[in-house]
Amino acid sequence: MRTGKNPSKTGVPAYSPKQLGMALLVYIPFMEGYFRQSLDILKYQIASIHHHTNQEIDLLLFDNGSCSEVVDELIKLYNAQKIDWLVFSQHNLGKVGAWNWIFGSMPNQLICYADSDVFFRQGWLNSSLEIIQAFPNIGMVSAQPTFHDVLDGKGKAHLFLEGDQNFRFSKYRPKGEIVDEYCQGIGADDELSASFHDMDLPYITDLQSNTNAVVGATHMQFIIPKEVARQVIPLPVSKALHRSETTTLDRKIDELGYLHLSTQKNYVMHMGNTINEKLLSEMREIDGSLKLEENPEKMILSKRSVMFRLALRLGRKPSINNFFLRIYDFLYRVLYVENQ
Amino acid sequence: MRDGQNPAKSIDHVPRPEKITVAIATYIPYLKGYYAESLEVLKLSLGSLWESTRLPYDLLVFDNHSCHEVQDYLLNAYERGLIQYLLLSDKNVGKGGAWNFIFQSSPGEVIAYSDSDIYFSPGWLEQSLKILETFPNPGMVTSRPLRSPEEYYSKTLEWAERQEGVKVEQGRFIPWEVFLEHILSLGVSEEQAREWYESKQEWRLTYKGVSAFASAAHFQFVTNKSVIQQFLPLEMDRPMGQVRSLDKLINQAGYLRLTTCEPYVKHLGNKIESKTGDKDHLSLPEKSIQNNRFWDLPLIKRSLLNVHDLIFKLYYQRRN
C-alpha cells in the first residue's frame, strides 16, 4: 500500500531535452575477427563527440544485442555520464529497426544519427547547422561530402531550388585527401578510388548566406529534424543491414520533398573496424583518458608466417577461397543469428 | 578504415517483435524514506509479471534515473533474458517523458503499460485483450475494476448510449472487498473508502458477450499503439502530477476507457503488505535465454569462434 507522499509529486521540474540529441547504433556480437577493435573504436567515437561538439547534447546509445563485454563497457560509460540514454535490446533489430526506435522516441528538436564507427572533428556541428539554417525543407545533413548517391540519380526534392534565384547549382572537385579518406573508410579498391578521384560533386549555394552544401547525404552520419524523422517511420524492416532497406529512408525523405545535403569538407571520418595511424594521431589531440597504446599492427598476421603464405596460396584458388568464406559466414550465422 | 566484410550483412532476417510489448516505467532514486521498500515492490511486481503472463510478449523497462541498486537488478534481469528492451535514462525525464519514449518506441502493436508497483495475477493480459479486441475504438483497458471521475469516461457512456447491441447497466457491481483493496492501497482510510463506495455506482457495459466497466486508470492499462501515438508528445514539465492529461485526451478523442470486471492486477504502492504475493517473486527466475544448443557449449563456441577469427584474418585483412 502507499504510505506517505511520493516526493516526485512536489513540483520539481522534469528534465528538458537539449536541442540536439545524438544517437549511436552499436552492434558488436563478439570481440574477434571483424569486430576485434570495434569497442575501442566506439570509445574513440564517444570521446570525439564530447570533445568536438560545442553545445550541450543528449547522447543516446542503442545497443542492438552486443556481447556481454560490450554491455559491461557501455554501463561503465553510462555511469561515467558519457551517455545520457542507454538502450539495450536483447535482439538485433537491424539498422532500420533501430532507426524506427530512435526516430520515434528521441525528444530532441534535431536528431543526429551515427554508426558506431564515426569520428567527429571540430566544427562538425556548426557546419551542419549552417546548412540547416540556410536551406529550406531539410531532410538529412551529413558532415562529410557524399560521393555515393544512394538515390541513384533519381532524387527530386532538390529540384525545386533550381528555379529559385536565391540558390545556385554548381560542381566542385573535393581535395585529394578528402577523397582518400573516404575511400579508406569504405575499403575501396584502387579502381573505385580512381573513379571517386575523378568525380565532381554537385553542390548548391544559398546566395544570401553564401552557404554551400553538397547534394546528397550518407547513412553513416546525418542530422535529421525531429518532425521529419517522425514522418518517415515506421520503415519496413526484415534484414539486419541491407542497402535495399536502408535506402527506404532516403526515398521516403525525398518523396516528402525534404533535402539530402552534406558539407563540402570532411568533418566526420568513417573509422571502420580497424585502428590505423591516422586515426591514432587525431585521437592523440583529444585530452581524454583513453589509452592509445593499442598497436594496430598486432592483429595482422605476419607476412612471413607460414599461415599467411599458405593462405595466399590457397586464396588463389577461387573454389577454396569461396569455401572458406562460406564457412566464415556460416559460423557467424550459427553462433550469433537468432532462430526464428 | 574498413577491413573485410561486416558479417552482419549476411543476416537475411531479424526477429520480429512480439505483438504485445509490456512496458514498465521505474523511478526509485534511493532506498530510504518513501522509497525504502520500492526495490522489493519492483521485484514483486516483475516476478508476478513473469509468472502470470502466458501470452507471448516483449518486456520493455524504462528506468527514469533510479539508484544503482535498482539499475543493477534491472541489468541482471536483462542479462538473464527476462527483459527484452532496457532503457536507462541518466536524467529523470518525468512520467510524461518516459511515456513519450515508451509509447513511441515500443515495437509491439499492443502496449500493456504499467507503473512499477503493480502485482499481476494470471489472466490479466488475456482478459484485457478480450475487451480491447471486442469493443470498438478502445483507448485504455485497465485490468481491475475501479472507479474514476466520470469526466474521464464520458465519451464511453455516450458511445454506449448510441451503439446498438450494448447492454448498459448502472449499479454497485464492484464487490466491497475489491473496491476496498484498491482504495487502501492508495493510503486512504477504510472509513473514507466506505463513504466513497456508498456515494457512487458503476456503469457496466456488455457488448458481443463481453462485459467491462466504464472507467480506466493510467497506472496500468492495455492499449493499441496506433491509438496512443495520436496523443504524443505529451507535454509534462514536472516529474509527476500531470498524468491525468492522458486520461482527458483519450476521452476527449472519443476512445473508450474500460476496465475488466474482475481484479487481475493490484496496486502495491510503496510498501508490501504481508499477505501480498509470493515471496519467491523477490528473486529472479532462472535464466530464460535458450542456451541448450550444441554450439553454445562454451568450449565448442570458443573453438568455432577461433575458426571464424582465423578465416577473417587470412582472407579479409589487408596484406600490404
Secondary structure elements and their pairing?
The complex is a heterodimer of chains A (about 350) and B (about 325).
Chain A lengths: L19 E7 L11 H15 L4 E7 L4 H12 L5 E5 L4 H12 L4 E6 L2 E3 L3 H11 L3 E5 L24 E6 L3 H11 L3 H8 L3 E6 L4 E5 L5 E5 H7 L10 H13 L3 E4 L5 E3 L6 H7 L22 H10 L2 H19 L4
Helix pairs in contact in A: 5-6
Chain B lengths: L19 E7 L11 H15 L5 E6 L4 H12 L5 E5 L4 H12 L4 E6 L2 E3 L3 H11 L3 E5 L11 H9 L3 E6 L4 H10 L4 H10 L2 E6 L2 E5 L5 E5 H4 L15 H9 L3 E4 L5 E3 L30 H18 L5
Parallel strand pairs in B: 1-2, 1-4, 2-3, 6-11
Antiparallel strand pairs in B: 4-10, 5-12, 7-8, 8-9, 9-11
Helix pairs in contact in B: 6-7
Can you tell me about this structure?
The complex is a heterodimer of chains A (340) and B (320). With 340 residues, chain A is α/β, with parallel strands linked by helices. Helix content of chain A is 37%, strand content 18%. Chain A has eleven helices and twelve strands. Chain A has helices at residues 38-52, 68-79, 94-105, 124-134, 176-186, 190-197, 226-232, 243-255, 277-283, 306-315, 318-336, and strands spanning 20-26, 57-63, 85-89, 110-115, 118-120, 138-142, 167-172, 201-206, 211-215, 221-225, 259-262, 268-270. In chain A, strands 3-2-1-4-10 form a five-stranded mixed beta sheet, with helices on both faces. Chain A has a five-stranded mixed beta sheet with strand order 6-11-9-8-7. Chain A has a two-stranded antiparallel sheet with strand order 5-12. In chain A, helix 2 links the parallel strand 2 (57-63) and strand 3. Chain B has helices spanning 38-52, 68-79, 94-105, 124-134, 154-162, 176-185, 190-199, 225-228, 244-252, 298-315, and strands at residues 20-26, 58-63, 85-89, 110-115, 118-120, 138-142, 166-171, 202-207, 210-214, 220-224, 256-259, 265-267. The mean pLDDT of chain B is 88. Helices cover 34% and strands 19% of the residues of chain B. Chain B has 320 residues and is an alpha/beta fold. In chain B, helix 6 packs across helix 7 (190-199). Chain B is built from ten helices and twelve strands. Chain B is globular, with a radius of gyration of 23 Å. Chain B has a five-stranded mixed beta sheet, with helices on both faces. Chain B has a five-stranded mixed beta sheet with strand order 6-11-9-8-7. In chain B, strands 5-12 form a two-stranded antiparallel sheet.
